[in-house]
Structures are given as C-alpha cells and as structure tokens.
Amino acid sequence: MTSLLPDIPNIPIEKVHLGEGIYLDLLRLDSVHPTISGNKWFKLKGNLDETFARGKKGILTFGGAFSNHIAATASACRLEGLQSIGIIRGEKVENPTLSKAAEDGMELHFISREDYRNKESISWEKNFPDFHRVPEGGSNEQGVQGAAEIHRYIPSHYGYVCLAVGSGGTLAGLLRSPLSNQLIGVPVLKNSRFLEEVVVQLSQSGKNPLWSHQYHRGGYAKFDHELLEFMRFFHGENKIKLDPVYTSKMLLGLKNEISSGNLKGEILAIHTGGLQGIAGMESRLGEKIY
After folding, report:
1. What pLDDT, on a 0 to 100 scale, did the predictor assign at position 2?
2. Nearest-CA neighbor of 75 among 89, 54, 61?
C-alpha cells in the first residue's frame, strides 16, 4: 500500500504587500491541505510510503508542544489508517496543538528536556518495534526527497526564493532539486549557525543557500509586539493568514532586507503553512490575532 496523499496539480502564487510600497510573490503551500499543512505534506509523503513498505503499524516522531510536524503527522496517520506516537519535549502540558493531535489518535509521551536532547541514544526501535521512526521536523531522507518536489511549483524567473528554516529539511530538498534560483534560508531558531552544516549534510547537493540568521525574534516560538502587528497588517492587506513561528518571521525579515536595499529583483517567498500554531499563540496571548 502507498500513501493516499496525492500529487498536487497546482499551487497558487499571489502578489502580496509587505508595507511601505514593498511587494513580492508568495507561493501558497499553506493552501495544499487544512491539517497536513504546507511543506509537511511533502515531507510526510515518503515517510508514509516507507511505513507501509516496512509493514509498520504507524509512525513514531518527535517535537515540541506546539510542533507543526506533530500536528501534521497525527492528521496524516489518521487519514492513512495508521497509528502515531509523539515524543514531546518537556513537561506535560495541554494546548490546542496537542489536543488536536490526541483527537487524531496520536499517543503522546512527554520526556524531560535533558532526555529529549539525548533522544538519539534511546533505543526507540526496541521500545516501539512496530513503528517507523521519523526525526523532529520530518527531516530525514524521505522528507528531503519529498521537499525536493516543491521545485515543480517554482518558476525559474525569480532571482531569489526565500523560506523559513526550522529543522532544515525543506531547504535541503530544494537545494537537491533542479532549481537554478538563488535560495535564501531564514532560520526561526536563535543561535542557528549550526543549521548551515545540517542543510549541507541533508542536501548532499554541493550547492549553498544564502542565510539571514537575524530574524528569529528571540528564538523558536518566540514572538513580540512588532511581529504580532505585522501579522495583523499582512492579513488586512492580503487576506492571507500567517503562522506565528515560521512564515511571519521570514516575511518581516524580507521586508527589512528589501527596504534597506540589501535585496533586489524578483523575489518568491514560500508560505510553508503551520496555521495550526495560531490557536496556540492566541492561548498564550489571551487574545485573538485575526
């Protein structure tokens, strides 16, 4: 049996306004599916196929309490009739992301942050032999191969193609693809220089992207008033919602790079989805974003 996730015939590209007369084009990966969001669709396809090919019951994977990957994996496994196990970093909590994952049938296990840092030394295959193990963010070989397929939706005339970077698998896949556009990675993690080597190892392409490491807004899942106001402005101008962790930070960074004259020419940004994270941010804020 193979994955039920089909090829997507078309993904829209829309011109969006970032403010101060600044416009660019946005590839709407967020539109591919309501719960298997954006780049996660592509990164999970091969891992679902691998699960079936190996005769496994489901997928075991890892993530934080607000992880897009956790949410998408739970949804995809439910749709495919597979089981799912999520190893969650930190103390037990309840939030919209984990509640939805549990509703989709994911069995959640919370482990300490120290154990999570050392998770590669734990024998998950021994403890859960009937599950295909997928790393945090879905960035394994199957995930990188799937992410490479995104190149089919990117026209060649753009001088720059920009995307937010978390675990590095999507950027690595695009580097491995036949794209000739210059790629720009915008990490959402603080102290993210290590990602440069991670992406090189994952892509095995010999190609290198440009990097903008300064737009993390304090670190993963961190946000501030300026980011919140930008998300609201962007939605008001373009009628497109942004997630608080990835694409909003990348677009606000691009706005700064363009307005300062550091980035010129035809630019395509990728909306990598993750809209499920909005509910979690709203629960932390105690107010609605949109």
Report:
1. 53
2. 61
Sheet of 160-165: strands edge to edge?
13-19, 22-28, 267-271, 160-165, 182-187, 210-211
* Max Cα distance, the chain (Å): 57
Give the pLDDT band of residue 227 (cuts 50, 70, 90).
very high
Mean pLDDT, the chain, whole residue set: 95
Tell whether 201 and 244 lie within a shared domain.
Answer: yes
22-55: burial string, b at 16+ Cβ within 10 Å, e else: bebebbbbbbbbebbbbbbbbbbbbbbbbbeeee
Pair (268, 229) in one structural domain: yes
pLDDT at 114: 95
Q: Which tokens is 195 given?
A: 């990602």
Rounded-to-integer distance, Cα 275 and Cα 273, Å: 6
Decide: pTM greater than 0.90: yes
Q: Which residues are paired to 236 by β-bridges?
A: none
